[in-house]
Amino acid sequence: MSSLFLALLRENPWPGIAVASLNLVVAVSLVGVSLLLGIAISVLAWVHALADREPAPTRQAANRQGFA
After folding, report:
1. What pTM does this model have?
2. Angle (CA) 44 50 53, round 5°
3. Start-to-end C-alpha separation, the chain
4. d(Cα 67, Cα 65) in Å, to the nearest integer?
5. In-domain check, residue 44
6. CA-based torsion, 58, 59, 60, 64: positive or negative
């Protein structure tokens, strides 16, 4: 049975090329989705860290407390 499949593959390589290109498209799309997800998570973490920071005291408030 496998020799028949290999004989067909030798005669017509297009199905194998189509499957290989489909695998390549799927792999590249998965890499792209994972990169976008990583960027989105890092941006969300950065925004969350910015939102949690204590606000810096203004110059007037610092002068009222006696800091120069």
Report:
1. 0.58
2. 140
3. 89
4. 6
5. yes
6. positive
The domain containing residue 39 runs over which residues? 25-52
Provide the token pair at 63: 């002068």
The Cα 31–Cα 24 span in angstroms is 11
Residue with the two structure tokens 């030798």 = 10
Q: What is the pLDDT of residues 18-30, one digit of tens each?
A: 888 999 999 999 9
- d(Cα 61, Cα 55) in Å, to the nearest integer? 12
How many domains in the chain?
A: 1
66: left (phi over 0), alpha (psi -120 to 50) or beta: left
Look at residue 19 and tell me if it is in a domain: no
